[in-house]
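Need tokens for this chain, all 196 residues.
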Amino acid sequence: MSIRARLRSCFLLPLIFLLLSIIMAKIGESYRTTIVQSVVAKYGHLAEPIPDSVALARFIDYALNAPAWVAAWNMPHVLPIDESVTHWGIMRYEAHWWYFIFVALMWFLVGVWLDRYRSVRHPDQFHKPVYNISIEVFLIAYGSFMSYSGFSISESFEYARWFEIVVCAWGAILVVVNLYLLLKSASALRSRPAMK
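Here are the structure tokens for all 196 residues:
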């Protein structure tokens, strides 16, 4: 496979999805700011905080990148970020910074997987059972964690029900697909000839 083909997957995918995430966040935050300004202009103050979920474009992006969102919102607070300041008009919380990092990482890994898949000459070369089993077990566990996170969103956040459903669906898809792949890898491992 040519270097150009590799660039298409493992470098272009994270770049495209990171730029899309930044654009969607900017649109969402602009809309949220407009609502806040209109309420303040009408009543002179903001009686209650506006829920983050009004930034619909941002949440559509979160839904598209739900695995990155779940990872970001469960990261411990380690970055010295002043949450009273909005950075570049899109990042108010430490989780926003982590989210963009995880979006790039997620799509980089998808791109690496696509590069690897396209680089083999025969489909059987792509399946390395021992290597695949560890990844599949991790993705099953992460998918289960995502589904749990989707069910527990409403306890701590004011998100729309559709967003909770999307996060749970992402988790369920990860579990089902990787269970299938795990069974396939285990079967391939069992069918290998014993070494003498």
